[in-house]
C-alpha cells in the first residue's frame, strides 16, 4: 500500500508536467487555447504528504522550476509518452523544432530531454527566465548539490544545454521505495562507498599506528568544534589530510573504512582511473561533484593507489602532460580546501611528490606484521567454523614467513573453497601450504614447503 502511494505521488507530478508541456507548446504555436497560461495550472501540493518524493520537495524547498526539471528528467523512466509531443515537425522547415532540444538514443525509441528542452519549457513564453534556467545547473543549486539530476557533457563547440538531462537512479529508487542509496558509481561520479563487517578487534596494528589513528578519530569527532568555537578557522586550513603508506595487504583500506564506521561517517573511495576525461574541464566538473556532496554529507574521501596521480612529476613535454598536471593541481587544491577528512593510500611513500606530502597532517606507515602479529592474524582468520589439521603449526608459519594480513585472507578464501568441495570443515596442511605458495608466487617469491610442518 505504501509503495502504491509513493508511485501515485510520482504519477501526479508527471501529470502536472504533461499539462504544462501541452500548454506551453499550445501557446508557443498559437494553437487553440493559446491565450491560457501554464502558470495557472494547479501545482500539486505536497505540504501534507509524507511520501518520499513529497518529502524531498519539502525538505529541499524546491520551487516549480526545479520540480519541472526533476519531472522532465524522470519522464523517460516512468511516462516516456509525455515527451512524444516534442517529436512534432516544423511545417516551415519540415524537420523537428530545434528549440525543443532532446536526443534520440539507439536503444531508446522515445524522446530524451536535454537542458535545452527544459530551457524551452521555461523560457518559450517568458525569455526573462533564461537566467533562472542557468541557475538550475549551477553547483550551488539543490538539484546539482544533491545529485538529483545531471546535465550530460558536450563537445566544446556544442552548447552546454544540449547535454542530456538525466535523473539519478538512486533518487528514482528512493521515490518509489523510500530507501536511500548513495550516488551510483559512474564516470560522472567516480566514487564508491566502501564498507566492512569487521571491527577494530579484527585488525592487527602496532601501538604507534593506533595512536596516530586516534588523532584522526578525534578530529572527526571534534574538528568542527575546534574550527568554530576554538577559533582555529583563523589559524589553520579546514579539514584533515592523512597519508597511509606501506606494502599491499597491510590494512590501509580496511583502516580507512573502520575510521568511518567508528565515527558513523560514510567512506567513499575515489576511482582515480575514471577521473581523467577527454573533455576539457570535465574532470574538474566530476571531481567537484564528489567534493560538494562529500562536504554536504560529511563523508571521508579515500584515494587508493594515490601515487598514480600524486606521484613525482617530470617536466611537461606534451599537451597531454600539461593537461594531466592541470588536473592534478586542481585535485590537490580541492583536497586542501576540503573541510572534511581525506585519506590517500600509497604503497611507497617515496613515490609521492614531496611538496604534496608536506601538506599531510599525519603520515602513517602500515608495515609488514611482526611474527607475533602474524600469528594473531593467522588465528583470527582460521577461527570459527574451521578446524585445522593437527599437523598444521600456525606459530611456525607466523615465525617463518613474512606475509601481510590481506594475503592471509586470500589463503583463507582458497582453503575454504577447497574444504567445502570436500564437504568438510577441516583445512588440510596441503591446502594451507598450497594457498601460501600461491600468495608467494604473486610476489615472485619462492616457498620452501619442507620447513612449514611442525616437529
UniProtKB/TrEMBL annotation:
One of its GO terms (molecular function) is ATP binding. Pfam families: AAA (PF00004). CDD domains: RecA-like_protease. The keyword Nucleotide-binding applies. SUPFAM superfamilies: P-loop containing nucleoside triphosphate hydrolases (SSF52540). InterPro entries: 26S_Proteasome_ATPase, AAA+_ATPase, ATPase_AAA_core, P-loop_NTPase. Residues 238-366 form the AAA+ ATPase domain. The keyword NAD does not apply. Keywords: ATP-binding, Nucleotide-binding. Belongs to the AAA ATPase family. This is ATP-binding protein. It comes from Pedobacter albus. The lineage of its organism: Bacteria, Pseudomonadati, Bacteroidota, Sphingobacteriia, Sphingobacteriales.
